[in-house]
Amino acid sequence: MPPKAPIKIFSGSSSRYLTEKISHYSGRDLGNIKKLNFSDGEFAVAFQETIRGSHVFLIQSTFPPADNLLELLMMIDAAKRASAYKVVAVIPYFGLARQDRKDQPRVSIGAKLAADMLTAAGIDRLITIDLHADQIQGFFNLPVDHLYASSIFLPHIKSMNLDNLVIASPDVGGSKRANTYAKFLGTPMVICHKSRAKANVISDMRIIGDVKGKNVVIVDDMIDTAGTLTKAAYMMREQGALSVRAFATHPVLSGAAYENIANSALEELFVTDSIPLGQESEKIKVLSIAELLADTIEKVYYYKSISNQFLI
User: Fold this and answer.
1) Is residue 150 scored above 90 in pLDDT?
2) Active-site residue, from 8, 112, 194, 231
3) What domains sit in the chain, N to C, each tagged with a CATH number?
């Protein structure tokens, strides 16, 4: 039996493009919400239909600017004040996730702060994809459905039928992810060991493993300036790799990222639509997460298991 509470799906302004696709796959109409803008930059949100007693899903990635997070918080607050039965935040890209620990004196833990704000605003559940650090789930004292883009990436990698395939991690921190891909595909793995002079600046990089005569696929959770990725691709080709491709869930792509990718040794870069691309690129291909999220929303609503969403 379906729940008595009706389901309502709403989109924040930054993820409208994705929510429309989710609405299509789920076969449900997109809810009507309005963002009111003041001349000084202040804004407010208002639901344009009743949500009293409804199971409300609010979809919004929280990439910069910070207004995207604030808008989501205001949507949550408005839903609670309008007597929604349940409020589920669907955050395809969870911003501030790189700030998951105190790695130097006198710094904030931005991911924990964001989690606290979402909890205080009143969410009952969180659905997200490929957190930069898995332990962020523990920042919430409520259910977190942490999905993985591997359920989309792995079938695509298999369909490419690449001979002498090797899975690579762009850094030591991503070795667990790369190792899981490699085990699933039955291939070897290599690791890029890097050291940074400061954020987004690499001082040194080494390839650990053999890439000569191999078709390399680099897997990562996000790509920002593309400095690490493009340097790794160049070094792998220098060491005899036949080709280098990359799969990264979240295309942050800031600074000179598009130029770096265009001028790189990468054959292709596959990303999801958790964040909209800032510009088109011949090398960048988008694999949509809309169907994955639509299916997860339906299963959460009907209290069904989502374990089959995880290929790894």
Assistant:
1) yes
2) 194
3) 7-147 (3.40.50.2020), 150-287 (3.40.50.2020)
